[in-house]
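Data availability (excerpt). The following record was deposited with the supplementary files.
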Amino acid sequence: MTAAFEELDFEYARSIADKALRSMAEQRVPLTPNNFHVWFNYWLAEPPALKRAIDIVIGNKRKFDAATNHGLYANYIGSKAADETVAYDVSQQLHSLMGSAKQFLSTAIADNRSQMAAINDVAQQGDADVDPKVLVRSLMDELAKATARATRLEADFMEKQRELDTIRDSLAKSEERAKTDTLTGLPNRRALDEFLRKTQIAAMEWGEPFSILLIDIDHFKRFNDEFGHSTGDQVLRLMAKVLRERLRDVDLPARYGGEELMVVLPGANLAAASAVAERIRRSVCEGHIIRRSTGEPLPGIAVSIGVAQFRDGEPIAELIERCDRALYVAKKGGRNRVIAETELEAAAS
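Predicted structure:
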């Protein structure tokens, strides 16, 4: 039974690997370990968000360039591996701390029993008509020992408390890192998915609108190809800065993948969201980037933005797909423009 199961496991893994390799060849994705990891997980549909992201890229006939491949790995695979490493480290720390806590409690119980036995001995001496001065002195000695033991136990307790605080801080920082894109400092896909779920529930519960923006940096590949990936990274950081400056505290800007960014606007209908998108587009056009290595000014940046409003009861995937189609129309129509979902039918006509 076990051998057959292991053989089945091997055959299944090999079939997934074959599919991954074929897909990479079809999409002209370089055969690197990280890229293979992404496409292997794509065929496993784990996580589901990775499969949706790749399906959208394929559906819109976009290229899997270096930035897109890197973003897919960083957002869906790399962050998970880092989480597992942190979880293992914390597990080891907690295991060690639990062992220390058990020893601490055992010592405390043993000391308490010793103290009770010693005081009982003093009490028995009192019943035997021992000199009261001797009894007082014996009792004082035992109380002093008890105080010393209590002081040591308290010190041990405080040390364990500090260790717990350290673990708690480590977990909090790990959680924050797990939800943050390392390049831009914006929330990543994990944080975005969580925020979208909460916003969707609140919208259905209170009957309030919410909209999303899908932003793509126009001709981003040119920055990477002509000026290097460090310049492309600089462009993404500028985009993150613009979003932080142009959005409310209740809004969430996030890196969606590669050169794509998403903004979630709670309480905003389609008209309000389109106005926000237009302000972002203009701010980006007004921005300037100086190449750090040479000091030379770089070509202007422009973005295409799709806008869609949540429809009560629909899956988030449908909202994103509709917004992505609006973005596609914006890029197909010449880029550097905002297209709302209401313009999709006209564009199709």
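Summary of structural features: The chain has three domains: 2-64, 81-178, 189-348.
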